[in-house]
Amino acid sequence: MMNLSRLEKLRLDMNNISGEISPSISNLKSLQLLSLLQNSFHGLIPDTICSISSLRCLLLAGNSFTGNIPNCIGQLNELSYLETTLKLRNNLLHGLIPQQLENIQALDLSANNFTGNVPADVGLGNIRYLALSDNKLFGRVPFSLCQENCELMLLDLSSNNLFGTIPTSFGNCSSLVYLNLGSNNLTGGIPEELQGAKRLSFLNISGNHFDGPFPAVVHRLERISVIDMGNNKLSGKIPEFIGDLKDLRILLLEFNSFNGSIPEEINALENLQFIGFSNNQLSGPIPEKLSGLKTIINRPKDKNLLGFIISQLYIGVQVNLVAKGLSMQLDMVGTYNNELDLSCNNLSGNLPSELGHLQGLYALNLSHNRLSGNIPTAIGNISLLESLDLSYNNLSGEIPVSLALLDPLSTLNLAHNNLSGEIPTSPHFDTLSRDGLAYIGNKFLCGAPDGIHCDREDFPTPESSESEHSEEQSGEWKMVLALAFAGYVVGFWGLFGVVYLVNEKWRKAYWASVDRILDGIIRCRKIRVSSVKPVIFSSFYLFVF
């Protein structure tokens, strides 16, 4: 290395190189940038690296470095006016985070095994980019993170064990663009002082214990583009002012206790592409007017990623969505990704025909509600739809033939409704549910596993069946009520035994009800670990927000 004393930049990224950094690295006296990203380096980071006074960019992410960070690391580039970047994410580093980091402007220690508190001094310098997510940090979020006139633009403390409340000092972070406190044990609410963060575009407080109504301070965050408040204890109504947030692209409120109706003002959000309201207590109809959701109607064809470039580092987002029958994670979210998920609520009424205007929609999940009426033919106009779940509702009538013409559709679930008639066919549509599970629980649907036979000349409907068997059902219900009364006397097993042994039809109905209840509980109450996570790269992508 003595012959490389004038070397200023050394990049060996993504070459699968193994080995350790030699203490003689200090001989590279003129080195300004050392980048060993995505290799197989291991061992300790030598203390001698701190003696390279010119080093201002140390990028060692994506390796297997172990041990502690040298305490002298904050002295890097001590005499230089240029920004200092330290990126050590996704290693096996542990111990405490060094206290003195005043000279570091961009610090990324995410995805390691650091313990202890978030250092109070870390916010006292000129730091702009601070990412400490996915560690084992505990304690409170330090009040010192946002001092007056601070330059902090990105703060990511997600996926740790932090507790307490959000400091009111965050209102001093007038330059803050990205705030991620998700997956911790924080309580309380969002302080009103946060309105001082006028540039805030990304807000994630999911996976905590926040309670109370939807935070009113959000209305004053005029540049907000991503809101994730999922998996908390928030309640009350979704406010009408949500329609004033014109830059909003992602709105995730799943796994809370929001009630009331979905505000019609959501139709004013032309840039909105992800709507996640599942697992709440929302009621009333789905808004009739949806034509204002321009980004979903006309899915962008570009390949732009949603994200930010801060201190020469790009940070994007990941979104968890329920599509194709599974919980899926998009590692990179582009302007072309979208979803509408209103599942597991108490929504009622008919499916609005304006759903057909959302031609660029990728996934539509309205399952586990109380929706009724026919499936509108206009849903067949959602020409790019790949996943459709309308299961566990009270939908009736025939399956529209237009659904069979959706070639992109790869997942379909219409189970447990009151559909009737024949299942439409097409070469592609026939492959969506060869086992018939997409149609189970529709006893008047010809071709469903538990439906009627297709060789009948006249297909019964729920209405005709009810008319033909009203007297029989009346007698059966009288018997059931009598048995229920007897159950209060002889106990549960007396009733269960009679129902189970006397009538096979009752027995099947009983177990079908049990299966339906259990399936609904299991599918609707899965706790979401997190929904929006950062993805950080050192290379540049289009700055969308």
UniProtKB/TrEMBL annotation:
Record keywords: Cell membrane, Glycoprotein, Leucine-rich repeat, Membrane, Receptor, Repeat, Signal, Transmembrane, Transmembrane helix
Stored Pfam families: LRR_1, LRR_8
Membrane topology, record value: Single-pass type I membrane protein
Annotated TM spans: 479-502
Keyword Transmembrane: yes
The family this protein is said to belong to: Belongs to the RLP family.
Protein name: LRR receptor-like serine/threonine-protein kinase RGI5 isoform X2
Gene: LOC107952032
